[in-house]
Amino acid sequence: MADEITAAADPGRAPARLDWSYAPAPEATDHAKVRESYGLLIGGKWVAPPSGSYFKTINPATEEVLASVAEAAEEDVDAAVRAARAAYARTWSKTSGAERAKYLYRIARILQERAREFAVLETMNGGKPIKESRDVDVPLAAAHFFYHAGWADKLDYAFPGRKPRPLGVAAQVIPWNFPLLMAAWKLAPALAAGNTVVLKPAETTPLTALLLGEVLQQAELPPGVVNIVTGAGQTGAALVAHPGVDKVAFTGSTEVGKAIQRTLAGSGKRLTLELGGKAANIVLDDAPVDQAVEGVVNGIYFNQGHVCCAGSRLLVQESIAELLVAKLKRRMATLRVGDPLDKNTDVGAINSRAQLDRITELVASGEADGAEVYQPPCELPERGFWFRPTVFTGVAQSYRIAQEEIFGPVLSVLTFRTPDEAVQKANNTPYGLSAGVWTDKGSRILDLASRLRAGVVWANTFNRFDPTSPFGGYKESGFGREGGRHGLAAYLDLT
Ligand code: NDP
Hints:
By secondary structure, the protein is of the alpha/beta class. 41% of the residues lie in helices and 16% in strands. The chain contains 17 helices and 20 strands. It has helices spanning 2-9, 74-90, 97-113, 115-126, 130-152, 155-158, 179-192, 207-218, 233-241, 254-264, 289-301, 318-332, 353-369, 400-403, 419-427, 442-451, 484-489; strands spanning 37-38, 40-42, 45-47, 54-58, 65-70, 165-166, 169-173, 196-200, 226-228, 247-251, 270-274, 280-283, 313-317, 372-374, 390-393, 410-416, 434-438, 456-459, 478-479, 492-493. The structure holds NADPH dihydro-nicotinamide-adenine-dinucleotide phosphate (NDP).
């Protein structure tokens, strides 16, 4: 900056070195009030767990403790399920669709009004860049409530010839990568369809779900219609196994998804699972390369790669691979990694130490297998959990980095010669959540999209979400859909 000023004051003098780096642009945090401790939302009241057990939730960018959060034991889960059952029987099952819609609209409007508060809290508790929580997570969460408000009184029209009926009590377990958005994905269709809910947020990111609990109270949602129990894996396990639950909706790892499916086998409970992914982002030789590079960067570095549908495998046609990888590395070097509350930050903090350890171990396996690694030089803050944007070239399909979900800012590049080979490689994974295709020709998009075993295929874009569009996977990425009419059906008895 000093050089710039000198150069302007003396135009005859050639500037020695212009500093184009961004000045810090931190978002203010004073309007996001964090309480010292949080209880459980059961039957419309915030209650302390009888066990007196609390855990600390931190800011992963600074490792500072933000709050103490109640750890729900089996008895608390039981109380929450009973509260949900009572609210279903007494109130919610008797509330008309038009009335339910009013509550959902109200929740959506309050979310919009309190958007800054939610965005800041989401970033502080989860580590994601403020521009993502502000521009993606919070607006999309509100959009899900708006969208489902529109369906609440039109269920008969959504499923003509059927008699849609709610299922009863839904148990919903959500992960830490989109804490508020996943709560909205789960709650909005369940409530629109007339179910009551017990929600279990992830251990590392409970704060925005708890703030949403306050919003539900502000919207005067009848007590017990939504109950929130915080805790770790045991709390989630107790909830899904509870005999008073009619439907389980889970988003998280494939491993836990399989365990839940085993628990529920034979119980008659309805289940939807949205699990991991290892998406192929396929770039054909006629693709607009610069646009594709932006899509690849967005596909894997958005939200530090903590995205189930992240484009973590780049499949690029051999003839343009060198050019594309060179452009990609140049673009990666411009990514700003650091303080998530800074409005210019592109890549924030890794969500937890455990996740950082997982990413580090998988990246080490890629190097040991013989892939070539590139990370742009960038300074990382001293405290907190960080991982540089990383790309691997020279990756064979058998490497763990090409097979396993890394859930971090790590991209594996593979090449192909023909579209058939691209499809084969893309489908060569136990997962099937999403994929991307980059090409100039609509016919190639339609051809590839119809052959890719992925629930969502983006064409000349990536990571686009809309409440009207069903989202979900094949194979080990789970089953059932969220969003759109299909997502609504997952919360209804249509027989
Ligand atoms: P988990 O699947 O353990 O977490 C998801 C949610 O399930 C959390 O609320 C968690 O609680 C809860 N949970 C954990 N164990 C059980 C159980 N036995 N029964 C019911 N609920 C349970 O994911 P992790 O946080 O352990 O992440 C591990 C890996 O999973 C990541 O590295 C990533 O690869 C993948 N993952 C994928 C996600 C996706 O959207 N596809 C999301 C999150 C992770 P708690 O957090 O309190 O333990």
